[in-house]
Amino acid sequence: MSGGGGERQGGTAQELGATDSAANKREIVVNVESSSSIPYHYSNRHSLRLRNSAFFIPPAPLTVASTLPKEMGRWETVVLAYKTLGVVFGGLVTSPLYVYPSMPLKSPTEQDYLGIYSIMFWTLTLIGVVKYTCIALKADDQGEGGTFALYSLLCRNMNIGLLSSKQVQTNSSSSHSVLLGSTENKSRLRMFFERSIVARRVLLFIAMLGTCMLIGDGILTPAISVLSAMDGIRAPFPSVSKSLVEALSAGVLVVLFLLQKFGTSRVSFMFSPIMGAWTLCTPLVGIYSIIKHYPSIFKALSPHYILRFFWRNGKEGWLLLGGTVLCITGSEALFADLGHFNRSSIQIAFLLTIYPSLVLTYAGQTAYLIKNPTDHDDGFYKFIPTTIYWPVFIISTLAAIVASQSLISATFSVIKQSVVLDYFPKIKVVHTSSNKEGEVYSPEVNYILMVLCVAVILIFGDGKDIGNAFGVVVSLVMLITTILLTLVMIMIWRTPPWLVAIYFFIFFTMEGVYASAVLSKIPEGGWIPFAISFILAFIMFGWFYGRQKKMEYELTHKIDLERLGMLLSEPGIQRVPGLCFFYTNIQDGLTPILGHYIKNMRSLHTVTIFTTLRYLLVPKVAAHERIVVNRLGLEGVYGCVIQYGYADSLNLEGDGFVNQVTDSLQVYIQNCPDNLTSDHEEVQEEISAFEEAKLAGVVHIRGKTRFYIGNNCGWFDRSMLAFYEFLHGNCRSALPALGVPLSQRIEVGMLYEA
């Protein structure tokens, strides 16, 4: 209703009574557009229940699931796979631009290059094909991917208890359709996490760290990709200064970020031809280089070249892994961008185009370097034949721009997931597609990324320093994903222990060795992602801590129907004429702000409708299912849930919304089985009261809360809650822009004692 500092009473995705089963309850869903054909959903009991005098509003009707998108056809999937080239794989397929230049090679030999290529081949095969394409993509959380989606999936299927109340059971994807089983069938590890608050907090920290590292990746990928591509102009024109290359790179990135508001679909349609050209031309150049320089390069596919490489180079070989790991950079975006596309399209694109392209391109680069061992500092452009240098330069520059898109899109996705899960301050999230829930754009995040990317280029212009930072991000994000995937395999998929052990040993060992190598680069630029991740993690933890404290207070001080009845029966409390929409989001109860309001205003409107906005993971909610109403057992007090999807326009402007709700309640009253046997005059009196209240005036009331930090608070609570108040005061309101007239808005302020 108001600006940035407003508390979220009835905010996005909040559900009243959402944890209760729909079975054995009656609910009436009213078609507010056509009174001649009104569908009702009945069951054995009323939707109104008194459980310890608790407040209850029924969950969404099951028919809402009919609005979910249908399965894609074969050709639609192929077209979508083509579009993924412009969004998902940009960072991964352009990695040849900077992998060899990022390695601190000293007088490399033929055997060294064969060992390096063998490492890159098996890294791409095991991590790219096996881990991400075949395993991770199946661990989606309702179509979303990434580290926080894995954490959400674990919380959704286990009694972890750190997710906020908005995370309710909805239509799950097929990836976690496994039956949860009874308590005796739970694994020991799952029971350990459910019982140990320390283990749950460590798991949350790991998920937060992975999320923050991926956001850091979204800053570094555009910087290193564009800078490495633009640096190719200095080979034919040595007089071009490094500062000019940095300025050109920064200008290119600014234009890219300004295009983000048009949405992933439009951007990918424009970018996919570029990536298609890049994916085709680089392996062709690689094949030419293999034939010309070293036709037997594929003997390096034998893993024994890796063993010989480390035996011969020792510590120096271990340090070179800090550059080698960049060959798999962007693989996390393959998983995190899942919400923008789908599993099949990403798998088709990677296995049929990206993977073969990378294997051949690195083979060609390595073949060239074996014959020209001192050219590794410019290992990409030097292996391009002179006759096609400029066409490849143009394609590589455009491809580097596209490469930035994959991590930018992934950053939007993980930020959106964090906001929905209530682990990040409220920001504006725009759905740029009417049929794809995961395709989002955030103006604030976009411009912050733009500023940071340009700053990284201008301050740390050396590609090797950025490469060192990049390696830290890539290795740690992969390691965190491996840990979370292992937990999913054990506790949700119920994978046989021996398969889990093989998976964990191979990938944790491989990525652990990579991580140990890149951590040695922290003084040489590797500190950049740590600084960014620390700041982001502090913001996430501060917000989470404040939200948990607020939730604890509200659950402790919630108002139930018995308490509301006592408040209204107190001497001096009046029922003033008018229709009031009181926004609330407390499960099994009403917000403490209600008691605060009644005690101080000494009144409540004759007709008060406690309203909740319920966000559903569907594009649009059918008009006849949008408003769910019921009685709450007190005179003139009703409950209303407004359901909306991510492509719905939620606007309460004018009298349209008020009329829809009152019409729904009137139909509900007339058709409620209790009233079928009641006196007809009583029903008419109740309906007449509605009309009189509406004529007397309509008002919308919501809460605006803050913490009161007293002297009895410890230093930790004081500092964290003060930080939360700062974040809360500067973020957007969680209530959508409902368009309620200013003259009808009332905000009730209340201090929550910390």
Automatic annotation (TrEMBL):
Source species of the chain: Salix viminalis (Common osier)
The protein, known as: Potassium transporter
GO cellular component: plasma membrane
Sequence ranges assigned to domain K+ potassium transporter integral membrane in this UniProt record: 81-563
Localization of this protein: Cell membrane; Membrane
Family, as annotated: Belongs to the HAK/KUP transporter (TC 2.A.72.3) family.
Protein's job: Potassium transporter.
Claim: Membrane is one of the keywords in the record: yes
GO molecular function: potassium ion transmembrane transporter activity
Membrane topology: Multi-pass membrane protein
Main location: membrane
Every K+ potassium transporter C-terminal domain range: 577-752
One Pfam entry name: K_trans
